[in-house]
Design goal:
Layout (H helix, E strand, L loop, with lengths): L1 H19 L4 H26 L7 H18 L4 H23 L6 H19 L9 E2 L5 E2 L2 E2 L4 H22 L2 H7 L6 H5 L4 H27 L1 E2 L6 H14 L4 H26 L5 H16 L3 H9 L26 E12 L2 E12 L3 E5 L6 H8 L7 E6 L2 E2 L5 H7 L1 E3 L12 H7 L9 H5 L4 H17 L15 H13 L5 E5 L7 H16 L3 E5 L3 H7 L2 E6 L2 E6 L1 H6 L1 H11 L1
Parallel strand pairs: 7-12, 7-13, 10-11, 11-12
Antiparallel strand pairs: 1-4, 2-3, 5-6, 5-8, 8-9, 13-14
Helix pairs in contact: 1-6, 2-6, 2-9, 2-10, 2-11, 3-4, 3-5, 3-9, 4-9, 10-11, 10-13, 11-13, 16-18, 16-19, 18-19
The structure holds adenosine-5'-diphosphate (ADP) and magnesium ion (MG).
Amino acid sequence: MRQQTWGIWALGGTIALLALLPVPEFWITQLNYIGLSAMAVLGLVLLTGIGGLTSFGQAAFVGIGAYTTAWLTVHAGLSPWLTLFIGVGLTAVSAVILGWLTLRMSGHYLPLATLAWGLSLYYTMGNLDALGKYDGLLGVPGLSLLGWQLGQGRVFFVLTWGMVLLSAAGLLRLLDSRVGRAMRALKNGSQMAESMGIDTLRFKIGIFVLSAMLASVSGWLYAHFQRAVNPSPFSVHVGIEYLFMAVLGGAGHVWGAVVGATVTKLLADQLQVLLPRLLGSSGSFEIIVFGVLLVLTLKYAPEGIWAFVDRLLPKTPRPVDWQHAAALAQRPKPGVGEVVLQARDLRKTFGGLVAVNAINFEVRAGQIVGLIGPNGAGKSTTFNLITGVLPLSSGQVSFCGEDITNLPSREIAKCGISRTFQHVKMIADMTVLENVALGAHLRGQRGTASAMLRLDRHEEQSLLREAELQLRRVGMGDYLHELAGNLAMGPQRLLEIARALCGDPVLLLLDEPAAGLRHKEKQALIGVLRQLKAQGLSILLVEHDMDLVMDISDRIVVMEFGTRLIEGTPEEIQASPAVRAAYLGTEH
Ligand code: ADP
Ligand code: MG
């Protein structure tokens, strides 16, 4: 975190220095163009690098900002400071509509939709009489403040880069918050995030809108810098250039936007002069070089230039400032022995395959119920039916007396059911602490604005305190600041349990928590599960390790071919000839 503060000071210092030093006007103008691009690329970093969503339409949003202010200042005589807000508002509305229509679809729909959007907006700008067709709008006033013209030189430079700095600082703060963690979780698919209670569609639309708003601000600055607008700087071609800058600079880092915009612009300038001279004829040869460069970057440095710089910078772990934070409120828990979960006649078919059929069982408070059976018996599917990942074909699930059948998984998480995954799902480039804090998402409510303004710190401290508490509870207290991607399988599984515990669950669903663990790690896991049970938690456990299941379960449900073979105590299960047949028949 300290490293981020350094970045902000370093950029701020550089801006001040460049403004005060006798830098030639030519370079100030170049830097202004770089700043305008960096602004738009910051949005792409958030969208593409952080959120994993690709957009070719960033330039179109720049265009909305530019055309709105140009038209309103030229034809309606409004103040540019007013049209900034109108332009950003208009951009946000169009981004919400476009995002709402396309972001619920997975795969390539968003890139395609933004491509179509970019093209249609470009031709709209170019063909509307009111917008001056391809000649655009001329005579856009420059910016002035209290009658003082800001011009196109040093003052404009400070304004542009000041806005870049503010936006970068805002994004860095955002990413280091409850909302930011949710946004960073989007890249890895929606299943885990939804299970933590995160409304992934809402957050996707959120970053799409935020990203478009940054583009719009860039467009506003551009219009008053150029004093004119025409469609060409807002074409899909430029949208692709922005993507190139993000990838080259490092789409996963806020500073990648600044580095990418700077390097691309400076390189383009040099190549435009150098290449024609070298080749002895004129042409846009630099575009060919950029094409090759993009392919090479994607192949050899997919994380961009900033990733190399980032590796050289000293890493200071986030200072622990949450020891005295207020504890999070806990939900009321049922008394030991009360029925917590009731599954009635669960049935799930995939086409002709009946994966789960007539499954009945219940889990009581403070009980560990094991769900076992050979591979393909339908255990994970049963889990997914209970947690709302899959819709039931028929049957009913009730939880603490309430019908939760077919609720979406984030609603089920709200009720107090937390889960882990058979294949660990964590965010590799987030620390263990941040990953676990994701599990406490529903226990906070601070949003984007308060994160950017740092009004969320009390809540943030409480969330991190809870994350640390749960990590200590599962014996992971030494790993807080480790990157999750560096963990071995055992700690990864404990991370998932701590994350699930952060949701303050009544019922914990563990899907093969011992898979891939070494003997010692298994012993540690058994200790953790025993202790959780002693603290009154109910656990539904899918596990292949028979010793472990027999050791800690109160009751066991055995599934075979999607149906319930038998239910009983571990002793009854061990004595059952049917179970022996099922296991010996399939596993030996
Ligand atoms: P288990 O966890 O007990 O090993 P699963 O619940 O994963 O078993 O799978 C039960 C059966 O359902 C298997 O035959 C599996 O191939 C099938 N199955 C699971 N998920 C799907 C799916 N999404 N589409 C089609 N078939 C599936
Ligand atoms: Mg399974």
